[in-house]
Please model this.
Amino acid sequence: MSSLNITLHISNAEMDEKDSVKKRKSRIETEKKILDAALSVFSEVGFDAASIQTIATRADVNSALINRYFGSKSELLKAIITQGCEGNFSDYACSAAAITLEDEIFRFFASEIKVDFEHYEFLRLVFVRATLDPEIESVLSSVHPTDGREDLARCLKTFQKSGDIAPDVNLMELSLILNIYALGFGTMIHLQPKLEQSLMIERARLSAKLFADGLKVAAEEPRKTL
Model:
């Protein structure tokens, strides 16, 4: 093969690769437009009332393209959940500034409340559908981040060492209990849309105090179970 043919062969391969990258980028951008439009339409009219055509119009794409990329409304919702839960929404992390157990628990509750308000539309849609559709619940369970609970358990270890939490308390189980309690704040927010964030923060502070006080009492009178 001559050097000219080799050069042409390499150039064609490079062009094919560039075209492939361009097509992948275009598809990713189009899928994002569709998912954003679907979330918007689902939130406005509800999952059942939403139509593929309405979503296509909102995304400015052909409805056939949505069917080709996703197949159905249910698959669209699954993709929204997967994309939305890829990262951990919560900005909670251990902080040296939290000098008391109450402060640490409050910081965790407050970070979860912040998430509920900042991602209100997404979370309302997802959790409502999860209560109605076991398949959606399964998808949510498989992708829902747990980093917040693990971070909290690591933070609580400091307070267990200092004696604020009994040594026989399983910190992962405790962090799970606190996480479930935090989900209760989210439930209130979604059931009562007019709730002010400041009111929920006040409730979080009171709840944190109750948990911290209870854990301290248990630490002073150790029990075999939490």
Observations:
- The mean pLDDT is 81.
- The CA atoms of residues 164 and 216 lie 5 Å apart.
- The longest helix spans residues 3-45.
- DSSP finds ten helices and no strands in the chain.
